[in-house]
Amino acid sequence: MDLVIKNGKIVTATDVYNADIGIENGKITEIGKELRGDETIDAKGMIVFPGGIDIHTHLDMPFMGTSSSDDFKTGTIAAAFGGTTSFVDFSIQSKGDSLSKTVETWKKKAEGKAVIDYGFHVAVTDATDSVIEEIPKMAKEGITSLKLFLAYKGSLMIDDGGFFKVLQKAKESGSLVMVHAENGDVVDILVKKLLDEGKTDPIYHWESRPDKVEGEASGRAIALAEMAGAPLYIVHMTCKEALDKVRMARDKGLPIYAETCPQYLLLDKERYKEPDFGGAKYVMSPPLRMENDRKELWSGLVNGDLQVISTDHCPFFFKGQKDAGKGNFAKIPNGAPGIETRISLIYTEGVLKGHFGINKFVELVSTNPAKLFGMFPEKGTIAVGSDADIVIFDPKKEIVLKAENLHQNVDYTPFEGFKVKGYPVKTIIDGKIIIDDGNFTGTPGQGKFIKRKTFKVL
Ligand code: URP
Ligand code: ZN
Ligand code: ZN
After folding, report:
1. Candidates 68, 264, 285, 321: which one to mutate for ligand 1, based on the most atoms within 8 Å of Cβ?
2. Closest residue CA from atom 2 of ligand 1
3. How much distance in Å is there from the Cα of 314 to the middle of ligand 1?
4. What domains does the chain contain, in order, with CATH numbers?
5. CA distance linking residue 238 with residue 263, whole number of Å
6. How many CA atoms lie within 13 A of 390 on its CB side?
7. Would you give per-residue pLDDT tens digits along the chain (458 residues)?
8. CA 129 to centroid of ligand 2, rounded, Å
9. Is 347 left (phi over 0), alpha (psi -120 to 50) or beta?
10. Rounded distance, CA 416 to CA 260, Å?
11. In a mutational test of the pocket of ligand 1, which residue from 58, 179, 313 has the highest number of ligand atoms less than 8 Å from its CB?
12. Over the chain, what HEC string results?
């Protein structure tokens, strides 16, 4: 065998046990005792789990007059440091472009740069008949999920007719539709009203996007999916208003899924009051919510109404990008970084603080993303035959998160000062160690495109 990981405690979504892992040609070929290989890692005292899978990222994305600041090299190196070994990024259709052209554009962004494996969702912003007809071809090429925005009026937003047509075609093609659920028409009116009243600070971003805006759009999206007989995945859920809609749908037995992100679990509205325009760091859509919403999200994860924790990594520099919105909160590029911090934050805040056990942790950050997005069992688990995408995690390692020590290409982290206990010390991709005790040992371009399978009910 090429590599053996010895003496570690293996954790999957279902099991915890001590064994060695044998790896050959990038795959796990044996799990047992006393294995031998050309190279050995002693993982005594470590937890060994399947690499994190982040199915919500925006690398090198043109947005709101600028571009997200991590490209496929910096963003994926940061991901690997944080224990993420695969991700699915959003390729976003420019109006008038075909879906094929959209995906080709994003593939070029990744080629020669990505250090971990990657897939693409395709975001439909212009649902013409010819675009709808491309959906089955996309699925055959391994792009088995589509994204629609019910917000960002005038740029990414799609109307209900376009949304419904995409849902119908996606169902036929075995693809999963993902939705950003906020009522963009209402947001647009509220933004204009606030600006007319001279309310320009970052806190008014929060005021322009109340929780009912998200609740209404989530309920509408679910109703449209039910009418189309299609499954639906709601991204970056933040609040009880929206979660209640998911709960009701799931209680009816509908295939409705949703994710949340660390920022919505760990931060709240008070952040928008940071002085010196500091609230701009947290300007993202939907916005951070209230203490009670955070509690609801944690219980949504525990009881299974939320199935995934992703990041919505969409970084913009505080100095030089976010400051475009000084004097007008609507011009602050929406988004925040998180690709590097997700795993250790959720381990610390989720497992160590007693919200859920370690199997559930693996399920939320790796196994369910793999299952819902057509990558299981190649990814999302540790089993014979699976890809050797593995994290060796030191449960005793304590770190205070600071932007200056992270690898994301951005000048802040929303989690500055958070104390985490438990951190990845080695990240293995395709059987190769690419993070080795704080050093990057991989090669840009080694990440491979993941041709994903069609949707299966979870
Ligand atoms: O504010 C956010 N979330 N920016 C990224 C784009 C999106 O809506 O996911
Ligand atoms: Zn969104
Ligand atoms: Zn996003």
Report:
1. 285
2. 335
3. 7
4. 3-49+381-440 (2.30.40.10), 50-372 (3.20.20.140)
5. 9
6. 33
7. 999 999 999 999 999 999 999 999 999 999 999 999 999 999 999 999 999 999 999 999 999 999 999 999 999 999 999 999 999 999 999 999 999 999 999 999 999 999 999 999 999 999 999 999 999 999 999 999 999 999 999 999 999 999 999 999 999 999 999 999 999 999 999 999 999 999 999 999 999 999 999 999 999 999 999 999 999 999 999 999 999 999 999 999 999 999 999 999 999 999 999 999 999 999 999 999 999 999 999 999 999 999 999 999 999 999 999 999 999 999 999 999 999 999 999 999 999 999 999 999 999 999 999 999 999 999 999 999 999 999 999 999 999 999 999 999 999 999 999 999 999 999 999 999 999 999 999 999 999 999 999 999 99
8. 24
9. alpha
10. 20
11. 58
12. CCEEEEEEEEECCCCEEEEEEEEECCEEEEEECCCCCCEEEECCCCEEEECEEEEEECCCCEECCEECCCCCCHHHHHHHHCCEEEEEEEEECCCCCCHHHHHHHHHHHHCCCCCCEEEEEEECCCCCHHHHHCHHHHHHCCCCEEEEECCCCCCCECCHHHHHHHHHHHHHHCCEEEEECCCHHHHHHHHHHHHHCCCCCCHHHHHCCCHHHHHHHHHHHHHHHHHHCCCEEECCCCCHHHHHHHHHHHHCCCCEEEEECHHHHHCCHHHHHCCCCHHHHHCCCCCCCCHHHHHHHHHHHHHCCCCEECCCECCCCCCCCHHHHCCCHHHCCCCECCCCCHHHHHHHHHHHCCCCCHHHHHHHHHHHHHHHCCCCCCCCCCCCCCECCEEEEEEEEEEECCHHHCCCCCCCCCCCCCEEEEEEEEEEECCEEEEECCEECCCCCCCCECCCCCCCCC
Quote the ligand 2 centre to 285 CA distance (angstroms). Answer: 6
Q: Is 195 left (phi over 0), alpha (psi -120 to 50) or beta?
A: alpha
Please give the distance, rounded to the nearest whole angstrom, from the Cα atom of residue 111 to the centre of ligand 2. Answer: 25
Q: Vertex 404, ends 308 and 323: CA angle to 5°?
A: 80
